[in-house]
Design goal:
The protein is flat and about 95 Å long. 84% of the residues lie in helices and 0% in strands. Helix 7 packs across helix 8. The protein folds into two domains: 3-169, no CATH class; 171-275, Receptor-associated Protein (Up-down Bundle), CATH 1.20.81. The chain has helices at residues 3-32, 37-50, 57-62, 66-82, 88-100, 109-131, 140-189, 194-204, 208-221, 226-237, 240-255, 259-321. The longest helix is centred in the C-terminal third of the chain and has 63 residues, at 259-321. With 322 residues, it is mostly helical.
Length: 322
């Protein structure tokens, strides 16, 4: 029995044990960490009782998806355990990135870090099991290389997904910002206050920017100052254009400048920047098309142009070759 087979057996046993551990421990954790879902469960239980159905709380819980009952609570508990050994700086950086991405899945930093290690274990373990199949006859060095590559890929896949979410969210906010400033300007010029204008934008649209406007308004209503709410909104998105807009609004309030005039200037600047970005992307397009054309278009053109000449040359030199 070679070393690869031994490693495969160990990983297989570990995966089976891990699945059993997830099912058993995760079921217990799900009962302990219901949190905000407890109200929903109790509401379902009350509704079933009103209909005259004889159901228990456990039956209602079992109606929830397996992901919510077992997997998510287990990952959260694993994240809480790993947070004890994680540097505080790494947790803060991860929390900031999750905030910039809009916190997909509504998870915290320890839980996200736990998903990275789980991804590495799953990718590496799966490739190890595949490499030990009888049909696979890879050399030992290739198996170690492929398993290592997929383990690293599984570790960094959540991070790459988070980075793509941040970029996509910032691009969406960047595209919506000029139109939002136009609506803010119209509302302020019509006599509304700045906060009322932000509320109007949050009501009319369903974009990331309008959601951030609505969150800032709720924070102001809960007692946070307008400056702090606006600065926190800009920090949660991490966009230079939005940061400059917030700075201009705060500066206008400090100096007593007309808010409508400031918003009009900011709107014109945002539209000019959007036009400049479009022109920049248009200038980049020919450069980006070089590689696809070189790999796809030019070979086919060369085949069409050179194939007849190649056949004629071959026929001309055929007597000498014979």
């Amino acid at each position: 029995m070679d070393i690869i087979t031994i490693i495969g057996i160990i990983v297989g046993v570990a995966l089976v044990g891990g699945i059993i551990f997830v099912v058993v421990i995760g079921a217990r954790v799900a009962r302990e960490t219901r949190g905000g879902e407890s109200d929903l469960v109790m509401a379902r239980l009350a509704e079933a009782t009103q209909r005259g159905e004889n159901v228990s709380l456990e039956d209602i819980e079992l109606q929830q998806p397996f992901m919510e009952r077992v997997v998510i609570p287990f990952v959260k508990r694993l994240g809480e355990f790993s947070a004890r050994f994680t540097p505080e700086k790494l947790l803060q950086e991860t929390s900031l990135k999750l905030e910039l991405a809009g916190n997909p899945g509504r998870i915290d930093a320890p839980t996200f870090l736990a998903t990275r290690f789980i991804g590495a274990a799953l990718f590496g373990g799966l490739l190890t099991l595949i490499s030990n199949l009888p049909q696979v006859t890879w050399p030992t060095g290739r198996i170690i290389l492929i398993v290592g590559i997929f383990t690293v890929l599984g570790f960094f896949t959540p991070q790459m997904y988070l980075s793509s979410r941040i970029t996509r969210r910032q691009n969406e906010v960047r595209k919506a910002l000029p139109d939002a400033l136009d609506l803010l300007t119209i509302c302020v010029e019509a006599g509304l206050g700045f906060e009322a204008a932000m509320s109007k934008v949050a009501e009319k649209w369903e974009t990331e920017l309008s959601i951030m406007f609505g969150r800032a308004i709720r924070e102001i209503q809960l007692g946070k100052t307008q400056r702090e709410a606006l600065r926190d909104m800009a920090d949660r998105i991490g966009l230079t254009e939005l940061t400059s807009f917030v700075a201009a609004v705060i500066q206008s309030q400090l100096l007593g400048v007309s808010m409508a005039k400031v918003l009009r200037i900011q709107s014109d600047q945002m539209r000019m920047r959007r036009r400049q970005r479009a022109e920049e992307e248009a200038h980049k397009a020919p450069v980006k098309m070089i590689i696809p054309m070189a790999l796809l278009t030019f070979p086919s053109i060369m085949i069409i142009l050179m194939a007849p000449a190649a056949f004629q040359i071959a026929d001309a030199f055929a007597p000498f070759i014979r």
